[in-house]
């Protein structure tokens, strides 16, 4: 009897998951199995090797010790010829410290909207062996009494209602605080919400297929640039509605496919000054901020969920190639004044 085909354990073969620019794949077979965009498709990629099951867990190597470097001393000479030395980082030994200028506190951001949780139709027929579609729940349907009837033995679903986050090696879910580094540990993160299982989901119409499209973004001090990678969107039928606090996308794609999404923006924008363009390979949006504050992310997190530490949209630069390798540096008002005051031209 041939052994079951399985994914090579990461601890034994040093195989890693590859997450790059929204695409997901396995390093052991990325040339055979093409990278996919959605997390569900990634989890469905078949294994590329066979072998025995193992419970061995690979221990991560400790990070190298940080090397502290001493700050170079700065020398300041006064009018009478006295030299003063200082080694404090970010400070110079001057007789008088610069005065702090008070700035107006930014307006508070709008409260995040509660996350809508999809529910199965009570009359929907569920096939035996169907798997729960919720993040973090791997329950397989057996019968009505066990998994759907209120009070059933396994009728309670423990799941994550928000999508996963993969940021600088850290893995977790938008709906809760826990973050891990290893992919195996990410799969074991216990759900933070309880409810009913979702075995069927919303039915898709016979003429249209709802699909997901990758969304990338970066920001400058005055705008947020958004790219929706929807190929060959119908310019006549597709709609993009930009309001002060949200963006509604309804894009009609070839082969009777459709992408719909409402983005609750992290901060307010000027709808009358913002614009969008439908291109052959994507839809570009230029959202004009109402102020120069930095956005931590494009969408508002679920109500009560803190923003992950260090999770920020990077300020971009302008030029021929966009945010990489451009020639013109974009600075906020404070840094622009510092640069102009030092005599360096922007």
Explain how this protein is built.
- The chain has 346 residues and is mainly beta.
- Among the domains are: 5-50, Irregular (btk motif of tyrosine-protein kinase itk), CATH 4.10.1130; 125-201, btk motif of tyrosine-protein kinase itk (Irregular); 209-315, Immunoglobulin-like.
- The protein has helices at residues 10-13, 39-43, 144-147, 183-187, 333-341, and strands at residues 5-6, 17-20, 23-26, 49-50, 74-77, 83-86, 156-159, 164-167, 170-173, 179-180, 193-196, 209-210, 215-219, 223-228, 239-242, 246-253, 257-264, 275-278, 283-288.
- It has a four-stranded mixed β-sheet with strand order 12-17-16-15, with no helix packed on it. A four-stranded antiparallel β-sheet has the order 13-14-19-18, with no helix packed on it. A three-stranded antiparallel β-sheet has the order 8-9-10.
- Strand 2 (17-20) and strand 3 form a beta hairpin.
- The longest helix has 9 residues, at 333-341.
- It is extended, with a radius of gyration of 26 Å.
- The termini are far apart.
- Residues 1-53, 132-197 form the CHORD domain.
- Pfam families: CHORD, CS.
- GO terms for molecular function: metal ion binding.
- Residues 67-79 have a biased composition (Low complexity).
